[in-house]
Amino acid sequence: MSLLRDWTVSATAGEFVGFLVPAVVGAVLFDSAAALPALMVAGVVEGSVLGWSQARVLRHRLPAMSVRRWVLGTGVAAACAYLLGMSPSTFYETWSAWPVAIPIALGVLFGVALLGSIGVAQWLELRRHLPRAGRWIVWTAGAWLAGLTLFLVVCTPLWQPGQPLWLTVAIGALGGLLMAFVTALVTGFGIRHLLGTEHPAAPVVRA
User: Which UniProt keywords apply (predicted)?
Assistant: First the structure.
């Protein structure tokens, strides 16, 4: 398999399987006070599965990489992403009383941090092995922007009040599959670019 194809297949499967956990948690605990902490825990699961699915491909190109650090970093970053993404709605009653400029500024800040969270976490490991690894943050941010946008475009009009739980989860799973494929494909192009098309790069070890 080519690097792009192998990465896309593995990362799509990993993100889709991992996303099923927060999809179910979110549907069951919708509007519950426990939703945010539960989704953060589910995010650790999702991120860890995604990280492993990426690392199993990447370690063939970068044998010196730490799979443990990659998986752990991705899991923690995913939990942070859920915290950033859910905070505006969870704490709406608090920030809605603030001057309008503050929520707007925080929304932009949270959005940028959310999109960059996984890329930054993975960059901490990738920079040990590749020069100019910071470009990975841009690739992953773009991938998640595209994937999350597609997810919202597909799922938002399909989710309706009063739907049975199974239908809510099924719609989320459909959106999750599309999101997983898009993010995997874009990051696949990114990792291929960083590694130098189909040839493994010499590791650059930093103290």
Answer: Membrane, Transmembrane, Transmembrane helix
